[in-house]
Amino acid sequence: MRKILMKAGISSVILSVVVATVLATMFDGEAAALGAIFGGTLAGTSFIGLIYVVTGLVAEQTQTREKLSMLTVMLVKLGLVGFGFWYGLIKLQLSPSGTALGIGGSILGLTLGLNKATSSPEAKEVMEREEARILAELEKDEKRG
Question: Tens place of pLDDT for every residue, the chain, 145 residues?
């Protein structure tokens, strides 16, 4: 499932950041366009990283030690993203409106892309297999308990 979500997420974020950049350029000029590129790219990268970590956390084959490592990566990522936005807005003086437009575009693009990905026949097949595996585990646990 990770492969399906990552592919859809990356392509939709790229498209949405391009659209947000064009809109920012039209409405507020080059400074806003730079903010949109920055905000959209940083937010999009953060969201794609979140998809990677969460799909790793719920994967059947992931061991407890790996899950702890992924949670640590997620917390570090959160701090780096916060620092990145602070640095871009305060130190680089990027346009707040452009940055917000980029973040919003990234969120919208990711939401639409993931919605489309989870509706695909390939994703439905993966989800059905996973549901069957979980039901089998539950039945096995009920027989033991």
Answer: 888 888 999 999 999 999 999 999 999 899 999 999 999 999 999 999 999 888 888 777 778 888 888 889 889 999 999 999 999 999 999 999 999 999 999 999 999 999 988 888 888 898 888 888 888 888 888 888 6
Q: What is the pTM of this model?
A: 0.80
- Count of all residues that appear for the chain in the document: 145
Secondary element (H or E) of residue 129: helix 121-144
To the nearest 10 degrees (0 to 180), the angle between helices 96-118 and 121-144 is 70
Question: Hey, where are the domains in the chain?
Answer: 2-120
